[in-house]
Amino acid sequence: MMRNPYYSTSSRSVIQTKPLGIVLQEAHLITDSKIEVALRDQEYYPYLRLGEILAMRGWIKQETADFFAQDWSKLTRQKTRRCLGYYLQKAALLQPQDIDAILEEQKMLGIRFGSIAVLRGLLESQTLDFFLMNLFPQEIGKSSLVSKSRFRVGNSQRLSTRIRIPNDLTHRTTQKLTSTQTQIEELESTEIKWID
């Protein structure tokens, strides 16, 4: 019996890429209404791509449109990953000087890269979440703090972020630190987690 070359019983994974407008909406980089306006514009200017229209209107950078149109689907399928800052820079969402400033602040505070970018107002938290869900899903539930160390307070052990407590602290100060640390731990369990 001869096999039909066009018929296969083995399952193939069909890779479908989402339209640029949907990806940009999922990343919270553009709104529905702006996409609708750009699509209407495209009817009058069919030789322009959607990303070009969005960039011409000043709603996103051309580099951002190109990144999501050309590179995004390939990057999400890659097994090896680079650091988050690399992707945000390639998408023209962060500039090299932003990345340097974030890395410096990260060294001082011990907070993850993405958290600092959001806190500085350089990135929307939904955009960061989009990158994490698609590129680093295993990191979603982790703490926004980079390094944690343990220290002893009396007979109990507490979690700290680069805090060293001298032995000669008064009892009142120790109690205050312990209650503050408990509040931080409760906050960490409910907040959105971002990675470096």
Give a quick precis of the structure.
With 196 residues, the protein is mostly helical. It has helices at residues 20-26, 32-44, 50-56, 62-77, 84-90, 96-109, 113-119, 125-135, 171-190, and strands at 149-153, 156-160.
Plain-language structure description:
The protein starts with 19 loop residues before the first helix and ends in a 6-residue tail after the last helix. A hairpin with a 2-residue loop joins strand 1 and strand 2 (156-160). Strands 1-2 form a two-stranded antiparallel sheet. Helix content is 52%, strand content 5%. The protein has 9 helices and 2 strands, in the order H-H-H-H-H-H-H-H-E-E-H. Residues 1-15 and 148-174 have low confidence and may be disordered. Helix 3 (50-56) packs across helix 4. It is elongated, with a radius of gyration of 23 Å. The chain has helices spanning 20-26, 32-44, 50-56, 62-77, 84-90, 96-109, 113-119, 125-135, 171-190, and strands at residues 149-153, 156-160. With 196 residues, the protein is mainly alpha-helical.
